[in-house]
């Protein structure tokens, strides 16, 4: 009888479960997440960064190239959505990371306001492609990953904290809660609260409503807290604008569009001249532009990848899984930005909003990428969510990232000043690259003058010299 029961037990025992395609691609169980969380996270990231589809055409379209030609807003809009869609999906499938890519803010300003006036648009985008090739070569050769691994843990944590302050400041500024003090005021104070030192208007009230709602929902650990808050604030904004005629929303006006469909214009696709910029602007000038693009793209992405991955709990002993693949896709994003005419694409800080909503795998990136793909036809829909509704996510997630400062050894003299410079300069100069550079230079100097130069290592020493050239590029250019 016992033998029969054993046989029955063996016969009825379930066999090994076959993993679904989604599980095999994204390892949801291993990262303790679900399809629902990833979809919410991907949607949240898209909502938080959809503004780039509208903002990038304004930046690139504000400048003319050396011939006086300006870019078509419709073409840049299509290029921006196309590159973001393709590269974000690729990041999800290849890197399996909740990181979304799009035309990088700041670096698109370099293309528009520094490069284009010295050459044609095709030549400027050609240099962008070359930048991407340089970064891809560094990723494939392993140089980029070695550099990232050489940076000490406290400085990596400082980058995360600095980026947290940065994206919180970006959120406050984009919502109008913090504004720039006019230069005509002749004051040393660069920013202020609202307009004239006071909060004014119902758009700011929408931001405050969204921020408070998000804070409460997250404190109560409500699933979908970020997305619920953005949706609620957007509905309130639409009611105020369409129902009561409230204006002054900034870039995105919260109104229901007359038509949800807009035809894409692929006129900029493949419109590049790889090496013409060296002849048109001069070899030295074009080389400096390329150097600036590579350095900015390299370290901006490095800081974002490190900090967002740490926030998602993906780092293992300070290292991110599949880092080689992630860095390859990021470099390819710059190439895609040049080929499409959208300027270099890089990992977006707003990916942290999706991580805050629960995203842990590349499935979230696939969702975000598909939504960017949809904007190729449905651009008007992307313009419904105002900055005042999306910005609270940046402030709240930025605050969560700043909490990492508890892991910094503030009493270690080797790190105190380098960490502080990194944390302070990232938000104060609106540049991850500037903060990373200042921190590395200070760290190498301190180690050297304390007789510990071997601890800094040759990689960080070389980087410190490179950043010294970067900060003094005008002097170097004048000498050469």
TrEMBL record:
It comes from the Bacteria. It is a multi-pass membrane protein. GO terms for cellular component: endomembrane system; plasma membrane. Keywords: Membrane, Transmembrane, Transmembrane helix, Transport. Pfam families: Xan_ur_permease. InterPro entries: Azg-like (IPR045018), NCS2 (IPR006043). The chain crosses the membrane at residues 39-60, 72-94, 99-116, 122-143, 155-178, 198-218, 225-244, 278-299, 370-397, 417-446, 458-479. The keyword Membrane applies. GO terms for molecular function: purine nucleobase transmembrane transporter activity. PANTHER family: XANTHINE/URACIL PERMEASE C887.17-RELATED, XANTHINE_URACIL PERMEASE C887.17-RELATED. Belongs to the nucleobase:cation symporter-2 (NCS2) (TC 2.A.40) family. Azg-like subfamily. This is AGZA family xanthine/uracil permease-like MFS transporter.
